[in-house]
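cron nightly-structures :: item 1 of 1
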Amino acid sequence: MDPDDLTPRLRALSERWEVITERPGSPRSTMNVVEYGLGKRRRAEVYVNRLLRYLLDPEEPHGMDTEFLDASFDESLAAYE
């Protein structure tokens, strides 16, 4: 194989690799997801409370059992130590 033939193939491979390994932007925060803004503050508070209630209830189908609840208590207790 002629080395000159290899250069375009390597360039194409490199470009495909860049596309495959491209990462999306940073994830949005929960507050951003629920559109927490000045005009929507009350609605956002309800959404966040519902989300927290869901995550803190080990009987909900989120698959975490008591892990989120335990982690929340661990962080709260650590603040008082």
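cron nightly-structures :: done
Residues 50 and 62 are 13 Å apart (CA to CA).
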